[in-house]
Structure formats: structure tokens, C-alpha cells
Amino acid sequence: MTGGEGYAPLHRWALAEKGEKRRRRRHHHPWASALEFKEGRRAQEAAGGEEKEDLLGQLIQDLNEINEVSFFDVQLPYELALKIFQFLDRTELGRCAQVSKTWKVLAEDQVLWFRLCQQEGYLLDNQISDFPCWKMTLQECRAKEQALRANWKNRIGAVSQLQYELGKVLCDVHSCDGVIIAGYTSGDVKLWDTRTWDYTTTVLEAEHESDELGFWPHVSFVRINSSLAVAAYGDGLIKVWNLMFGCDPIHCYQHNQKIQALALSVEGAAIATASAFQVKIEGANDKGYWETIAEFEIQKLVGSLCLVPHHTDRPVAIATAEEFVYLMKAGEPIQLLHSIYGQPVTCLDVSVSEAACGVKGFGWLINETNKILLYNLETGQCMTQLGSSLGEFTCINLQDSPPCMLVAGSKDRKVRVYDVRQSKPVCSLYGHQHGVSAVQMDEWKIVSGGEEGLVCVWDQRMGIKLWETHARAC
Predict the structure, then answer these.
(1) By CB count within 10 A, which of 32, 256, 420, 434 is most buried?
(2) By the 8 A CB rule, do 386 and 374 touch?
(3) Which domains, from first to last, does the chain contain?
(4) How far is it, in rounded angstroms, from Cα 265 to Cα 267?
(5) Three-state SS letters, 51-79
(6) C-alpha distances in angstroms, 169 versus 154, 218, 219, 327, 473?
(7) Which of these ranges, 133-147, 397-411, 455-469, has the smallest mean pLDDT?
């Protein structure tokens, strides 16, 4: 026996052992069935004697094999797996849902998508049981936000007209979180919910046809917050409705003379009214019963009245009366915040810790022009004096503006944005034919209304007008 012939059986045994090990590894591999299927296909093609299988059936079989990959099976308890998945974002959860059926169930859990939805700032006041599929809800919220952003950039918009019965003149209107309240000369009080697709309407107070004299006082003021609606009538009557309890008033009280100003707290249940020389603050106590919290007597007729936000325990009111500005805290004597003889206060707004008022200057003095004074409510001291205007300031918005910012409108037809840390305006916008009657702003948009009925939307960053529409009947 030669050397080569002696090693031949050993060589054949090694090759056979190697093939057996390879076959065993393939048999235990997670994709063994797929590999055997492919080897079988090759054998069929080589033999050429069998008919080819349907490609669609092969694809379905391959997908089933992929979905049943064993090393992706979750061996952890469901609650523990949720704890791990809660650190993933939307993109990562979408990728995990493609791994296997088990992972898809985990990645589409309601708790995960409810948390993601609220982390991105959507539907913060809702509960997890409010929607059946929070993943779809988040997709809808994001799509709506993207559409709104695109419409803003492309200046695409639509005007919706809310019209009540013909012949009834609108007296006052106010809004909060998409709900609009309006009062009419007929005494009617109307609500519109613009958050619904059909603008759901509710009549809180309809005209009283059964009145003996055939007369019902007109609505002087209306106010609304997230839970309450208030209307003041020309005869001094105040009515309060709870938006959750239907159309019947939950509280009423009467002034002897007509109402000159009305204020409603941003949150909570506190109402301030001014009639003649009296300012009254009404509110609900801990048991839900309404009572008079405080009454104040001032020397002149009230022009403007505001309630300081986030003071639910002890309401704080700010009132203007000609050249005086009063600070009124429940349980404390009235405090004079501002008084300059011959310079009446023309507008007022308040934030949590500050009050801003527009002061009319002396027309014959160049240095004493119209200006805005900013007061600290804790110290009662004037913090800063902002700008100057040839026309008196007619409206101001401090409460809804970004931190350290405010926006004001004046009779010279200009809208001015101020940084309270400097006296000169950050930007000045001109686009109204008459004086500006209302202003509001956020981080980059400004909305202004003029006495001529024109409503303008501005881009503060570029200083240009985005939209304008006229509030005339169609």
C-alpha cells in the first residue's frame, strides 16, 4: 500500500464527517427550512423533471419563515418589555414593528403612543381612553400641524362667517380655545364651537317673547373661559353659565346701574364687574356656592377692568378711571397704582406680575407724547416706559404675548411690538386705514383689527402682511 492509498480512506472519512457537521448546523439554523427549500429548488432545476412552483406561493412561504424567526421571540414579561420600549421614539417603534408579530404588538401599544402624543404637545388634556388608536391620532395631529404650517407659509387660508338671525345687531364677542361667545341687541347670547367640523352652535339666552313690555335689555359685554360664560346686560344684570351644565344660568346678580366693564378670570370662577363708582368681585367658594368676594368704591367711572391671571385663591383686579389706575386685592384696601393729572389712561392689560397701561400725553408738549407704562404688581412701582406715539394708544396685549414682549395699537394706524427691556419698538407695522382697535401676537405672528373693520395677519420676523380680510357682511 502506497502512502497516497493509505491516506485516501482517512480523507474520505474527514470529508464525510465535515459534510455531516454542515448538515447538522443547517438543520439547527433558524433559517434551515429556507435553505433546504432553496437546495430542493436547485435539485429540481438540475433534474428538470419537476414543474416550477408558483412565485407568489414561494414569496408567501418566505415571508412566513421570516415572521417565525425564533431568535426574535420575546421571552420577557409584557410589562417589562413595555418599560424598555418606552424609551424609543416614533421612528424606532416603527422599525421594531417590522421585526416580528410579537414585536409589532409591543410597538403599537396604546400606552406608548399616548405618551408620545403628549410628549409632542398634542391633546394634553385628554385621557388614554378618549381615543381607540393613539398611533392614528398622533398621525392625524402631525398631519394637521404640517398642513397648517404649509398654509401659513403659502398664505393659504379660508374665512368662515358665523352669522346669527338677520336683524339682530352684534354687541360684543369673545373667544377661548376655539369657542366663541356673542351677545346681541335682542338679548340673545350665542355660542359657536369652531373645533367641530360643522361649528356646533348653542343658544344660552334667547329673546323673551313673553315679556309683558315686549322689551328685553341688550347685551353689553360677554366673556368666556374654559368652563364659564358670562353676559352683562344693559339693565345691570349679570348671568353666569357653566359650559358643561346646559343653557340654564348657574348664577345671577344685579347692579343698580348699567355695567361699564366686565372681566372674567382666565381659569377658575371669578368675575369682576364695574358699575358707576362700584367694583364688585364675585366668585365660587370651595363648596361651589357663589358669593361676593370683595367690593370697592372709587372716585371716578371705570374705563377698563382686568383680573390678574393665576390668582384663584384671592382674586386681584386692576381698573382704570380716567388718569387713575387702581390695584384691588380681596381683603385689602384699594391701592393707587398710577396717577398723572391731565394724562388719562387709554388702554390696559395685565400679566401674572405686571400691568401695562397706555397713557395719553400732552398735545402741546413735544416731550410728553403718548407712551406705555409698565408696573410691577408686587411693588407697585413703574418698571419702564416704552416708546412714544403721535396717536394715543388704543389697545395693548401683554398677557398673551411671549415673555418680555408686548404689542400695542394706536390711533396713528400703526401696530408696534415692544421688548420691555428697551424703550424703542422692535418693529412697527402700518396697514390700517383708521385707528387700531385690537391686537394679539405669539412668537412670530401678529393679528390686528382696525376701526374700519379690516383684520390683518403679520409676520413679525419679516415685517410683512400675510393676510387681510374685511369684516363686512357677504
Answers:
(1) 420
(2) yes
(3) 65-125+136-142 (1.20.1280.50), 340-474 (2.130.10.10)
(4) 5
(5) CCCCHHHHHHHHHHHHHCCHHHCCCCCHH
(6) 35, 10, 10, 35, 12
(7) 455-469
State pLDDT tens for residues 32-49.
444 454 555 555 555 544
User: Is 218:184 a contact under the CB 8 Å cutoff?
Assistant: yes
The separation between CA 212 and the C-alpha centre of its own chain, rounded to angstroms, equals 45
Beta strands in 200-334 (DSSP E): 200-205, 219-224, 228-233, 237-242, 251-254, 261-264, 270-275, 278-284, 290-297, 304-307, 316-321, 324-329
Expressed in percent and rounded to 5, the helix, strand and coil fractions of the chain are 25, 35, 40
Q: Any residues with CB less than 8 A from the CB of 365 and at least 6 apart, and which?
A: none
Q: What are phi and psi of 15, to 5 degrees?
A: -65, -40
Q: Cell for 387?
A: 416708546
- Could you identify the residue written with the cell 412566513? 64
- Cβ neighbours of 13 (radius 10 Å): 10
Q: What's CA 386's distance to the chain center, in Å?
A: 29
The burial class, CB within 10 Å (0-12 / 13-18 / 19+), for 104 is middle
Strand 335-339's sheet: what is its strand order? 304-307, 316-321, 324-329, 335-339
What is the bridge-based pairing of β-strands 261-264 and 278-284? Answer: unpaired
Cell of 182: 356673542
Q: Which residues contact 220 (CB under 8 A, 6 or more apart)?
A: 171, 172, 183, 232, 233, 234, 258, 259, 262
CB 324 within 8 A of CB 300: yes
The closest of 463, 121, 327, 224 to 239, measured between CA atoms, is 224
Residue 282: all three cell numbers together: 364675585
Angle between helices 134-154 and 110-119 (to 10 degrees): 30
**pTM across the whole model:** 0.71
Q: Which residues contact 342 (CB under 8 A, 6 or more apart)?
A: 323, 362
Out of 148-152, 253-257, 331-335, pick the least confident: 148-152
408 φ/ψ angles, rounded to the nearest 5 degrees: -140, 150
Q: Which residues contact 381 (CB under 8 A, 6 or more apart)?
A: 375
Nearest alpha carbon to residue 265 among 221, 239, 229? 229
Beta strand spans in 405-453 (E): 405-410, 414-419, 425-430, 436-441, 445-450
Residues making up the chain, counted from first to last:
474
pLDDT tens for 173-193 read 999 988 999 999 988 899 999
SS3 24: helix
